[in-house]
Write a structure and sequence with these properties.
single chain
Length: 587
């Protein structure tokens, strides 16, 4: 099989060479003729306007994939922060998303815009309509100097909604029997299998967090648009609006096409040049660093193992071996004074979460400060990882908590009977040997043992939270029960320390290290991020030495021509489901 993959890799590389070498030769000849010219003309521009397109998907953290180069939230924040101190950068031009985005992504981009403006630079936004009813796409750009909207577009951003699918009725029709244990009534994931509609606790919890997210968005937008929250909500409640009505209501500033907004941005910069934010290379800081801080990040569901890099996939995940080893490596590095961990996860394996938690405890025992920066989600296993940190920073809309556990199975024996399919089980050993079979229900003894295991995990989880947060166990048990909270609610409950974005987490790191706010720290990623080509070579069993020698071929994959072909392939394969918002689904 390995030989097959290596052969395929050779064919792909050969294709790249055939396609690209003529182009590279032309470029090389052109470079020889005019080597002194920059891509902007005779001289590098001193009036740059950075361009950010929010209409494409954004991950929380950088992902390595040959077939996808999706921008990341942390990457956007980092480059805009660096541009604040670059005199050549005069402003930022943004293409707004017409559809909703995760509330935390919207919050963080808004914060980055505010900081960018506070440095004395301008931000102009153009929208071809806020077509989605979600208010989050509008929140992401509400802090701009000017918001333009195409005159034929509409403004429909009015609130938030969420949909929950229940399969209880479906299972009844096909004679399937869900058997789940959950700790406790707010651990609602099992309800989608066992119920036909919301339980009282499920409805209460969902309405609570979605209302809090909406209220947070309204408060932040009201500040940006110089309104009071009640006034703003009274206006947005009347949506949808035409573009002209949106201007009259004070929701946007100007009507015009994107070319007009872009020209306005360039004129404000003194007829400078537009540069994609992804292509912007910040100038190196001349300021001496005060400390090295390890950055360990994880996005996606939590699972055991190392995951194994797949350069053909952009699917994110947190793998316990990988993350715990990164924390251990940072702990052993004597130059590292603190470990900043970024988490964006709905949870997953309790065993995997506990392995990462243990690595954090070992780091604390070696006097390393641990700071957690939460993304959109830090729920269940995501919060388990964070519980023992020295400081936890969450956005106001971060979905956090869900301190609880659930597990079970769906029994399909009667479903099989409907189609004449038969599964017969034979076991040796104790009675629990066949407990996880989908062809038979739990026996009373099996169910009791299974529930006891779930109870043990819940007890361990709540105990770790009580110890890590220095809270009475009784207080933890009261706010646990599997319930999710927003960042605002979690701070009130004592589950997080401060509200803010990634910059807030960095400021907290400096504080814990006894540094001044304007001291410079170096963030060093653990593990060092490998290129997609290095991932590819490892996948095919090619040695590190060979990978290093062949790494120069990476320019083929990253070239504009190949990226264009790959984008065409992505569009052809795109499914409607990919347009859905982040989990939990809010729109």
């Amino acid at each position: 099989m390995k030989h097959f993959f290596v052969t395929i890799a050779g064919v792909v590389v050969g294709f790249f060479l055939i396609l690209i070498i003529p182009v590279m030769l032309i470029v090389a000849i052109g470079a020889g003729v005019g080597a002194t010219k920059s891509i902007f003309g005779e001289d590098d521009p001193s009036q740059l306007v950075l361009r950010l397109d929010l209409r494409q998907g954004i991950t929380d953290q950088p992902q390595n994939s040959i077939f996808q180069s999706t921008p990341s939230l942390l990457g956007i924040v980092g480059k805009l922060a660096a541009a604040e101190n670059d005199d050549n950068v005069k402003g930022l031009f943004i293409r707004a998303s017409s559809w909703g985005m995760g509330p935390v992504k919207a919050e963080q981009i808004r914060l980055a815009i505010k900081d960018f403006r506070d440095s004395g630079k301008f931000v102009i936004v153009h929208s071809q309509g806020f077509d989605d009813t979600s208010i989050t796409s509008y929140l992401s750009v509400s802090a701009a100097d000017e918001i333009w909207i195409q005159d034929t577009a509409a403004f429909a951003a009015t609130g938030l909604s969420t949909e929950t699918a229940f399969f209880g009725g479906v299972f009844e029709k096909i004679n399937a029997k869900p058997e789940f244990e959950q700790f406790y009534e707010y651990k609602n994931s099992a309800n989608t299998f066992t119920k036909k509609t919301f339980t009282a606790a499920h409805r209460e919890s969902t309405l609570s967090w979605i209302t809090d997210v909406f209220n947070t968005a309204i408060k932040q937008i009201a500040v940006d648009r110089n309104m009071n929250p009640q006034q703003l909500q009274a206006i947005t409640d009347q949506a949808p609006f035409t573009s002209k009505q949106a201007v009259e209501a004070g929701l946007v500033d100007k009507l015009g096409h994107v070319v007009e907004a872009r020209e306005a941005a360039l004129a404000r910069a003194g007829d400078g040049e537009i540069l994609q934010l992804s292509d912007y290379a910040p100038p190196a800081s001349k300021k001496k660093s005060s400390a090295i801080v390890a950055l360990v990040s994880g996005e996606g569901a939590i699972a055991t193992g190392s995951g194994g890099g797949n350069p053909f996939s952009s699917e994110a995940g947190i793998y316990s071996d990988q993350m715990s080893e990164a924390i251990i490596a940072a702990t052993k590095n004597k130059k590292v004074k603190a470990i900043l961990i970024r988490i964006d996860s709905p949870g997953g394996s309790a065993i995997a979460s506990d392995q990462i938690w243990n690595a954090i405890e070992r780091a604390k025992a070696k006097d390393k400060k641990i700071i957690i920066s939460m993304g959109q989600l830090a729920a269940s296993g995501g919060y388990y990882i964070a519980a023992g940190a020295d400081a936890i920073i969450a956005y106001p809309t971060t979905i956090t908590g869900s301190i609880g556990v659930l597990g079970g199975k769906v029994v399909l024996d009667d479903t099989y009977d409907m189609i004449g399919y038969n599964v017969e089980q034979l076991n040796v050993g104790g009675e629990f040997a066949g407990a996880y079979s989908s062809s038979t229900s739990f026996s009373d003894k099996q169910r009791a043992a299974f529930r006891a295991g779930m109870a043990d995990i819940y007890e361990d989880f709540t105990g770790k939270v009580a110890t890590g947060r220095d809270m009475p166990l009784e207080a933890v048990l009261e706010i646990a029960k599997g319930r999710v909270w927003t960042g605002v609610q979690a701070k009130e409950n004592g589950l997080v320390d401060e509200l803010g974005g990634f910059k807030t987490a960095i400021a907290k790191t400096k504080e814990l290290l006894g540094l001044k706010a304007d001291d410079r720290i170096i963030l060093r990623r653990f593990p060092a991020q490998r290129s997609p080509m290095e991932e590819l070579f490892e996948m095919f069993g090619i040695s590190t030495e060979a990978a290093s020698t062949m790494a120069k071929l990476q320019f083929l994959v990253e070239s504009e021509q190949i990226q264009t072909l790959l984008k065409i392939q992505q569009i052809a394969e795109q499914k409607p489901a990919e347009l859905q918002a982040e989990i939990p689904l809010v729109k």
